Amino acid sequence: MEESKEIQQQRALLHAKYRRAIPQAGELWRHFKDNMYKIIACPVMHTETGGIYCVYQALYGSCGVYCRPLDMFMSEVDHDKYPQVQQKYRFEKRQDS
Asked: Is the dihedral angle over the CA atoms 69, 70, 76, 77 positive or is it negative?
């Protein structure tokens, strides 16, 4: 299904905010703890709060489906808490995705 003009405009605004690509359905993204996830839907808007979320599915274990605020999904790794991690962001798009 193609994205509506409204979603395309929202994606452009979010791209400007985060200064990097916004997840899109079907893409594969790597968590900084080295697990892979498939994007189910993004951006997703909460009907009550208007918050913007990303829905994604684990590609390991029980293949759970998760929802996370986009701000958190796009955030940088806390390198004080995880000094050994090389990845800059919590989630990064897989290059061949």
From this structure: positive
